[in-house]
Amino acid sequence: MINVCLADNFPVVHFGVKSYFKEHPEISVVSNVGSFFMVPDALRNKEINVLVIDLELDGLKSIYELKAIIKNFPKTKVLVFTNLNEQIYAPNAIKAGVAGFVHKSAKLETLGTTIIRVHQGLVMLSESLKKNLALIAKQNKSERLYRKLSNREIEVLRFLCDGKKNNEISKTLGLNEKTISTYKLRLLQKLNVTNLVDLVNKAKTLDIV
Prior knowledge:
Elements: E1 2-7, H1 11-20, E2 27-33, H2 39-45, E3 50-53, H3 63-72, E4 77-82, H4 86-95, E5 100-103, H5 108-119, H6 127-138, H7 151-161, H8 166-173, H9 177-190, H10 196-205
Parallel strand pairs: 1-2, 1-3, 3-4, 4-5
Helix pairs in contact: 7-9, 8-9
């Protein structure tokens, strides 16, 4: 039996996922948490084979915090289950050590299949993402610059799009305010814009945030 911990903000998601897998022959949802702060204790208290987690989970400030979970709990596979754009966030999540990425628009049957496969040691991405990544690799540098945003740049960009100021972002991410300014300049250059308004609009147009 594959023991699963589901980390999600919404009770309806917990109820739906747990109900779906209630009679499943291979998967058992043995733990449910509603914030990132509860994740380490959940993984310590029970033997969890797969952690199913939303990137927008309360308290999860950075994908770097997921890297720490993966390092500290090497026996637990981490599977992202989120509404965030797969084309943008999945590659960086995989780089961080995540074993799979399932968009919340997918069927729960797909989630179940992915849980089983990541438990077996496979890295799971959708076929559409694999095809897009192959196409991106063939594009010239200027066409795929926005795909080359780092994990941290995407995080800073999300906060900027939420209307956060540099000092607010620095406190949230635990970085120097000058460092945030540097990331902001890089984002302007990489997305080929000259001001914050255009940066936010470009990010939304490209479905980065």
